[in-house]
Design brief:
With about 270 residues, this protein is an alpha/beta fold. The protein has a single domain, classed as TIM Barrel (Alpha-Beta Barrel). The chain has 12 helices and 9 strands. A 9-stranded parallel sheet has the order 5-4-3-2-1-9-8-7-6. Helix 2 links the parallel strand 1 and strand 2. Helix 6 runs parallel beside helix 7. The longest helix is centred in the C-terminal third of the chain and has 24 residues.
Length: about 270
């Protein structure tokens, strides 16, 4: 059983829902990433989603696009991200961690070389935004070989036939995109989210996590009733960036993010207990 699957098993057994925070590796500074990851776990994160910076992050809204730009400007590349994971694992062998990014850096390294390197440092899964399920067989073969999960996005507009294909290829969990468009956009329609999750559950027993549009405790709590987990990204990245822009040092900026994560954790737990 993968570390991701085991974490969802533990959460289900205790009647809890997963909190999955997303941050961009190397933003605003490479030295800040590992301490931030540890702080997120201490604040209640169950699974960590670490963004690999890329020059053309087409699925991201302005907030995360700027984070990618800042990270790249500081020299962060895929191998540096893997080094960050290695450092994180020195003190945390339990928290599942997946990489989220785009195909180009993985393809440039080579699927087999990436899988070996990522598994060696303790990466548990990969979510590539722009590798369609019709073309995922090669990378999936390598991920499966080293015991890593392959996470897929499902959108409100995903047709049934494509959903069948995605759920056959996916492992770990399904990431449901609650809004049409890029990250950080729009407002949640909770009833619509619940309806789509119910439809997806007819295709797969995998846990379902909801992301895009989760901005605070209230929005996280609103979807926690129907989802197995909640992903929050743009709100955290924006919180961190604003703190740095306001002149706060790394520790103080991190505390701002931690406070928001703790608030969201409390909102999820309260909604589940209600």
């Amino acid at each position: 059983m993968s570390r991701i699957a085991e974490r969802f098993r533990q959460l289900a057994a205790s009647g809890r829902k997963a909190l999955v925070p997303y941050v961009v590796a190397g933003d605003p500074d490479p030295a800040a990433t590992v301490p931030l990851l540890h702080a997120l776990v201490a604040a209640g994160a169950d699974i960590l989603e670490l963004g690999v910076p890329f020059s053309d992050p087409m699925s991201e809204g302005p907030v995360i696009q700027k984070a990618h730009e800042r990270s790249l400007a500081r020299g962060t590349r895929l191998r540096a991200v893997l080094d960050m994971v290695r450092e994180f694992r020195r003190d945390d062998a339990d928290t599942p961690l997946l990489l989220m990014g785009y195909a180009n850096p993985v393809e440039h390294m080579g699927y087999a070389a990436f899988a070996d390197a990522a598994a060696a440092v303790g990466v548990d899964g990969l979510l590539t935004v722009d590798i369609p399920p019709e073309e995922v067989a090669r990378v999936n073969r390598e991920l499966t070989r080293v015991g890593m999960d392959n996470i897929f996005l499902v959108a409100p507009t995903t047709p049934e036939a494509r959903l069948d294909l995605i759920t056959r290829e996916a492992s770990g969990f399904i990431y449901y995109v609650s809004l049409k468009g890029v990250t950080g956009a729009g407002n949640l329609d909770v009833a619509d989210v619940g309806s789509h999750l119910a439809a997806i559950r007819r295709h797969t027993p995998l846990p379902l996590c909801v992301g895009f549009g989760i901005k605070d405790a209230a929005s996280a709590a609103a979807v926690a009733g129907s989802a197995d987990g909640v992903v929050v990204g743009s709100a955290l990245v924006d919180c961190y960036a604003r703190a740095v822009e306001a002149g706060l040092d790394a520790e103080a900026a991190r505390e701002r993010v931690v406070a928001l994560v703790a608030e969201i954790r409390s909102g999820i737990d309260a909604a589940v207990a209600a």
